[in-house]
Amino acid sequence: MKFADEPLAYHPKVRSMEDYETLYRQSLEEPEVFWSERARALSWFYPPHSTMDVDPESTDVAWYSGGRLNACFNAVDRHAAHRPNKIALVWAKNEPGAYERISFRKLKHEVCRLANVLKSFGVRKGDRVCLYMPMIPELVYAMLACARIGAVHSVVFAGFSAESLRERILDAGCEVVLTANEALRGAKRIPLKHIVDDAVEGLSLVHTVLVARRTDVQVPMHAGRDHFLDEVMDKHRSTCPVEWMAAEDPLFILYTSGSTGKPKGVLHTTGGYLVYAALTHAVVFDLRPDDVHFCTADLGWITGHSYVVYGPLVNGTTTVLLETLPNYPDASRIWEIVDDVKATQLYTAPTALRSLMAAGDAYLETSSRDTLRVLASAGEPINPEAWRWYHDQVGKGRAAVVDTFWQTETGGVLVTPLPFVTPAKPGSATKPFFGVELAVLDDQGHILDKDGVSGNLCVKRSWPGQARTLYGDHRRFRETYYARFPGLYFTGDGCLRDEDGDIWVTGRVDDVLNVSGHRLGTAEVESALSEHDAIAEAAVVGIPHAIKGTGIFAYVVLRPGVSYRSEIELQGALKEQVRHAIGPIATPDGFRIVSALPKTRSGKIMRRILRKIACGETENLGDTTTLADPTLMDELLEKPVEGAA
Ligand code: ATP
Ligand code: MG
C-alpha cells in the first residue's frame, strides 16, 4: 500500500493572481477534477470512488464516497514514519519562557496509549467523548486518540460553567469525559475537576472521568468513575491499530460560540473536512516545509481544531499550542513566544489585537518578530486601524496580513486574501477560497450579480469542509442554514462586495442597522469609531427612533490612560469622526462609555445583549451562558440608558 508522505507536494502553489484565478475557475468549472486532485494530499486506505455526491434539492451532501481513511493516521503516523524526530507540537506553557517540544514519534506513542485507555473504558467507534481540558498536550492526544479509534470528540472550551458543560454532555450523549485537576490561565487557576463534578452530578450517562494532572493540587476522586490519566496511560502499550473510517463518518462535534443564541452542535465528518483543513492551511498560510505555525486559538473553537491541530498536523507542520493568555504577564508575551519558537505564521483574533494595540507599542520592543511571514486574523471583522497596526508595527511592513472569514460550520476558511498574492485591502476579506461560490442576496432573495452591492452572504454550492448536520437535529440544520434562501447556504452575515469584487463582511444580518432606509453594517460604524485616538474598542446597535426608524447607539471602551474634558466634548468628537468617515447618516444618536464590552468566551462582541440594554429590554436578555465575564452585566445594567436623542 502506498501512502502520500509529502502532503505539501500535493497542494497547489499559488504565486500570482493569475494562478489564483486559473485554479479558482477550475474549482468551479471542473469540481470533480479539482477536488479529486486535492484528496491526494491525504493518505487513504481505500481511495474514494466518487468525489462529490451532492443533491442540489436537499441539504444532504457526501464527499469522497467509498474512501476509507483515518484522521489520526494522516496527522501523526505517516509523519512519525518518515520524520520521527521532527517536532510536531511546541507547547508554550502558562509560565513565561517555559516550553515543551513533542516529536511526531512521541506524539504517536502518547496518542496510542491514550487510545488504548479509551478502549479499555469501553469507548468504541461512533461513541462521543467530551474533552473539557486546558491547553495541554493531553488535549491534543485525546482528540487524536478519539480519531484513531473512530470515536467522535466534542471539545468544550474549559471556561464554560458546569451548567453549560452539562448541557453539551447531554446533547452529545457523552459517556466519557476527560478533564484536568485544574487549568492555568494567566494568573488564574480554574478548578476544572470541580466543575466537571458539578456538571455530571447525578448523571448516570457519564460512567468514566479521566483526569490529567496539570498541577499538584489535590482533587476529590469519585471511586469507580474517576481515574488519573497518567496512571491509566502507564498501563497501556504505545501501539494501537487505527480504525479505517468511511469518508463520511463523523470526526467531531463542536458547539458554536453562542454569539447569536443557543449554541449549535455542529458535526464534521472525516474525508472532506481533512482535505479542506489541510488545503486551506497550506494555501492561506503560504506553507513551507520548515514552518512553525502559531495559532493562538483555544482548541475549544473551530480555529483550534482546523489550524492548531488538524490542518498543520495533517500537513506535517510544527504547530504551537498556547496555554497562556496573550497578555500574561504583560502585552509583550505573544511577541516573545513568536521569537522563542521562531514562528513563521501568527493567527489570532481582532479582539486580542485590539487589546494588545491599546496597551501601547512599547510592548513590541522586547521582540524582533523577524521570523513572521504571514499574519492572519479571524473571528470578527478586523477594523482597518487594527489591520494597519498588525501590518506596520507587528510585521514591520514585511509580513502579509490575511483577514480570513469563516465559521464553525464551514470547517475551514471561506473568504480570504492569499499572502503576497491578493492585493491587500485593510478591513476586507477579499476573495472566495477555491471551490467556494459566493452569492450576495437582497432581503427578497434576489441574487445581486453586480459588484458594488450589499446584502446577505450565501454560498451557492457544497464544499468539502462544510458541516454535514447539527448533531441529532438535521431539521434545525436545514432550517438554520438553508431555509432563509432556499438552495443556498446562508452564513447569517452581511457583506459588501465592492467594485473590485472584494468582500467586506459587515457583521451579522441580525445586527444590521437600517437607518432611514439605509443599511449600515455594525463593522463600518465601529471601525470609524475605533479610528479615534481615545477609543480602544466600540460596538454599535440599533435602537428604535421616531424619525429614522432605527437610530444608532454606540458603546465605547477608552484606551488606558485616556482623559477627556467632558463626555459631551468626547461624544462630539466621535460623532464628527463617524460623519467624516461614513457620512451623517451613520452618526450615533446615543453613547455610553463602558469599561469593557460583553463578549463570548471566544472573544466576540455580543451585540444582542447590548441591543436589549440600549432598548431598555433588560427583562429578557436571552442566553447569557456563553458570556466570558458575567460580572460585567452588573455594570451594564446599572445605569439607565437614555434613548435616541
Ligand atoms: P453562534 O453561531 O452560536 O452565534 P458564532 O457565529 O460567533 O456563534 P463561530 O462559528 O465561531 O461562532 O463564528 C463565526 C462568525 O464569526 C461568522 O459568522 C462571522 O460573524 C464572524 N467572523 C469570523 N471571521 C470573520 C472575519 N474574518 N470577518 C468578519 N466576521 C468574521
Ligand atoms: Mg454562527
Short description:
The chain has 645 residues and is α/β, with parallel strands linked by helices.
Structural description of this entry:
This is Acetate--CoA ligase. One of its GO terms (molecular function) is acetate-CoA ligase activity. It is a single chain. With 645 residues, this protein is an alpha/beta fold. Among the domains are: 104-244, 3-Layer(aba) Sandwich (Rossmann fold); 516-638, GMP Synthetase, Chain A, domain 3 (2-Layer Sandwich). It has an eight-stranded mixed β-sheet with strand order 12-11-8-6-7-14-15-23, with helices on both faces. A seven-stranded mixed β-sheet has the order 5-4-17-16-18-19-20, sandwiched between helices. Strands 21-22-24-25 form a four-stranded antiparallel β-sheet. The protein is globular. The structure holds adenosine-5'-triphosphate and magnesium ion. The site of adenosine-5'-triphosphate has 26 residues, from strand 24 and strand 25.
Give a topology summary.
Layout: H1 17-29, H2 31-38, E1 52-54, E2 61-63, E3 68-69, H3 71-82, E4 87-92, E5 99-103, H4 104-120, E6 128-131, H5 137-149, E7 152-155, H6 162-172, E8 176-180, E9 183-185, E10 188-190, H7 192-200, E11 208-212, E12 226-228, H8 229-234, E13 245-246, E14 250-255, E15 265-269, H9 271-284, E16 292-295, H10 302-314, E17 318-322, H11 333-341, E18 345-348, H12 350-359, E19 374-377, H13 384-394, E20 400-403, E21 438-441, E22 453-459, E23 469-470, H14 474-481, E24 489-497, E25 503-508, E26 513-515, E27 518-520, H15 522-530, E28 535-545, E29 549-558, H16 567-581, E30 590-593, H17 607-614, H18 632-638
Parallel strand pairs: 4-17, 6-7, 6-8, 7-14, 8-11, 11-12, 16-17, 16-18, 18-19, 19-20, 29-30
Antiparallel strand pairs: 1-2, 3-13, 4-5, 9-10, 14-15, 15-23, 21-22, 22-24, 24-25, 26-27, 28-29
Helix pairs in contact: 1-2, 3-4, 3-5, 3-10, 4-5, 6-7, 9-10
The chain binds adenosine-5'-triphosphate and magnesium ion.
